[in-house]
Amino acid sequence: MSWSAKLATALLLFSCSISQANELVIAMPNWFSGRASANILKVALKNEFGLEAKVAEAGTLTAFAGLDAGTVDIHPEVWLPNLDNLVKKYVTDAKTVALSPVGVEAWQGMCATRAAADAGISDIADLNDPKKTAVLDTNDDGRGEIWIGAPAWSSTAIERIRANSYGYGKTVTLLDMQEDVGMAAVDAAAATASPLVFACYAPHAVFKLHDIVRLSEPSYDPAKWNILLPSEDPLWEQSSTAASAWDTARYHIAYATSLRDKHPEVVEFLDRVTFTPEEATEMSYALQVERQDPYDFAKQWVSKNAARIKEWAKP
C-alpha cells in the first residue's frame, strides 16, 4: 500500500471513530504535554462555551489531513520547524489550517546522561567515534544504541536524517520506540550512572528529573537543511539533509480555518491561549512521572487557572 493510501485509510478510520454527538474534535498527540494540553482545551471549551469536544489520539499526518478535510478542528501542539513542510502545504498554500499567533518556546537536539558526558560524549561529533560510542553498547553487538524518538513523531525521521548527514548513522544503532519506553531507559541509566545518549526536547520533565547534558553541535545552517516529505520524493529520507543543529523551536495550536465560520468565538479563544515552558514541563511531569490521567489533570489545571481562562474566552 502506498504512503498516500495508508494516510487515506488512517484518516477514514479516524473519522469513523468520532461520535457525531461531539461538536468539536481535538487531535491528541502521543507525547505527554500534548496529551495534557489537548484535554485542557477540551475542559475549557466545555466550561466557557458549553461545547463538547472529542479528544482522539492521532498521528501528525492524520491530524493535518483531518484539519484540511474538516474532520478535525484543533491540534494543540504543532512543532516548528519539524512541521514546516506541512505548514506550508496546509497553512500557507491551501489555507485550510491556521496557527495561533502565540507559540511556546522550545528546544530539541541530542542529550547525554552525565555518565556519557564524563565518558567523552559531549559534542555531536563524538558520536562518529566508535571508541567513544562503545560505552553505549548494551547488547554486546559492537555498536552503541541511541533512542531517536517515537515511531510516529516527525522529529524521529528528522533525527534519522541528521544521523545520516552527520555520519553517526554508520556508527551507532538508531532506535525508535514509544516515549514511555525511551524515558524508562533514561531513568534506568540515570539511576545506575550508565552512559546513554538520546533524542531530547524541552520543555520536558527529564530536565527536572535528571542531570542531563545537551550535546553541542554546529549552529543551525539553513543551507544544510533540506527536509522532504514522502509525497515530494519516494526516497525522501536519502534525499533529505540536516547537518547542523535544529533551528529555534516553538509550538503553536493549529485549527481548521472552517472553525472561523462554525465557532468564531472559539478561534478568538485559541488565538489567546498561552502556556509557558515551565507549565509545559509541569504537564509532562504530571503525566510521565506522577502517572496522572490526562483528563483528570486537565480538570484540576483548568480549575486552578479559571480566571486566566476567562480572559482567554472574553469576547
Beginning-to-end CA distance, first to last residue: 48 Å
Shape: globular
Which stretches are poorly predicted, pLDDT < 50 over at least 5 residues?
1-21
Range of strand content:
15-25%
Number of strands: 12
N-to-C series of helices and strands: HEHEHEHEEHHEHEHEHEEHEEHHHHH
Task: Describe this protein's structure.
The protein has 315 residues and is an alpha/beta fold. It has 15 helices and twelve strands. The strands form three sheets. Strands 3, 4, 5, 6, 7, 8, 9 and 12 form an eight-stranded mixed beta sheet that branches. The longest helix has 18 residues, at 32-49. The chain is globular and about 60 Å long. Residues 1-21 have low confidence and may be disordered.
